[in-house]
Amino acid sequence: MLEVVNVTNENKIFDFKNKVCELAAESVDGFVLFVDCRTATVLEKQKIFNSVPTVVVIRDFCRDQHRMIQLRPDCTYSNTLLADIAAYKLWRNVLLYYDHTYSSLCLTDLLKQLSLNSVSTRMVRTNNYAGPLQYIHYIERHAPDGIFVVTATDTMEDIISKDSAIYLSDAIKAMLEIFSEVVLTTNVTALEPIDCRQKSTPRNRTLALEVFKIFQQNNVMNYSEYQICSTENSLTDSWKYMGNWSKDDGISLVTSRLFGNEFIDFNNATLKVAALPLDPFVFFNSDDNNRTTHSGFCIDILDQLALKFNFNYEIVSPSDNAYGSLEDDGTWNGMVGMVMRNVSK
Q1: Could you tell me if 241 and 230 are in contact, meaning their C-beta atoms sit under 8 angstroms apart?
Q2: Does the pLDDT at position 31 exceed 90?
Q3: How far is CA 247 from CA 81, 109, 163, 187, in A?
Q4: Cα 315 to the chain's mean position, in Å?
């Protein structure tokens, strides 16, 4: 029997320990725990976890536990992933926006890995991340090639709400591998109930724990793999799978695109472009059928842009023939006003 227990209240650690003891007395063979660092540290000191194989899911950066197999974000791997992304995109300077959950050791490791790829980093620490609008002014000031945001899981719940199910799937897989190895190497098919108050551990549990220790030493996290997902069209659209990353193979993408919302072209759309005649940049001409045509330096550039980015265009002019100035009511006239009103590009 595999018991999955979720604990969210930090103040009930010892109540939780009592629950573990009750389940162990009911012949529970292993535990998958979703806990925080503080809870994991306290539980690790409890004798019961010397006798019951445990996979603990910790979504924060915290020190290693020695009695539990730990599924957690390993910053060494995730930092390598970030450095690989910067290298893949040919970024030379990045903005790192992070909060208190990112430890100093993890931060130092990321800076080291980025510097090895000749990437300079500007760091901004926040105590209350609330979304992209917080770092927009840093983009305007420093114009980074790319941005990395590292924040606490609960601030991103709206876009990573499925992570608990994914972690649980990985944890169950690890636990099943442990017990498969127990059956194969020790021929133990059922573990005896255990009492938290007893001093000795039943023999078949001792055999199972030996297998658990070997499995733990092989470090299941060495085989971790990250899925790379991206939004499409906007920051709020659903996630699309773009590829994966592993320590051995690096980045492997479904297509050549790393970000789903990267601009490719205008998909043959017709854009309205505001213009006024100004030699030698824009000429307004009339052909034999008395239709207005356009030429000049800016029109030549516009033609090349249309070819490169796959769009058509229509030249439109403001009725007041003005380039644009601010009116008393705060609106703009001329070509600037057309752009502000989304009449032209």
Answers
A1: no
A2: no
A3: 8, 15, 21, 34
A4: 42
Q: How far is CA 260 from CA 151, 163, 180, 309, in A?
A: 22, 20, 40, 17
Q: What is the mean pLDDT of residues 173-177?
A: 80
What percent of the chain shows pLDDT beyond 90?
14
User: φ, ψ for residue 169 (rounded to 5)?
Assistant: -60, -45
Cis peptide bond upstream of 144, omega within 30 = no
Instruction: Note the helical H segments in 160-202.
Output: 163-186
The answer to the question of residue 66 being in a domain is no
Which CATH number do you get for residue 321? 3.40.190.10
Place of tokens 């690989």: 84
φ and ψ of 332, to 5 deg: -110, 145
Express each pLDDT in 70-101 by its tens digit. 776 678 888 999 999 999 989 999 999 888 87
Residue 158 token pair:
């709206």
What is the pTM for the complete model shown? 0.54
Among 1, 36, 33, CA closest to 20? 33
Q: What is the CATH number of the domain that holds 141?
A: 3.40.50.2300
Q: How many structural domains does the chain have?
A: 3
Q: How far is CA 31 from CA 68, 127, 194, 201, in A?
A: 10, 34, 14, 17
- Please enumerate in sequence order all residues whose Cβ is within 8 A of that of 94, keeping only pairs 6 or more positions apart, or say none: 86, 114, 119, 120, 121, 122, 144, 145, 146, 147, 148
Is residue 191 within 8 A of residue 29, CB to CB? The reply is yes
- Can you give the residue range of the structural domain that contains 54? 2-60+161-223
CA distances to 86, 121, 138, 208, 338 from 98, in Å: 17, 12, 13, 41, 40
Residue type, 176: L
Strand pairing partners for 95? Answer: 122, 147
Angle between helices 75-88 and 104-116 (to 10 degrees): 30
The two three-digit tokens of residue 62, written as one number: 């915290």
DSSP category for residue 50: G
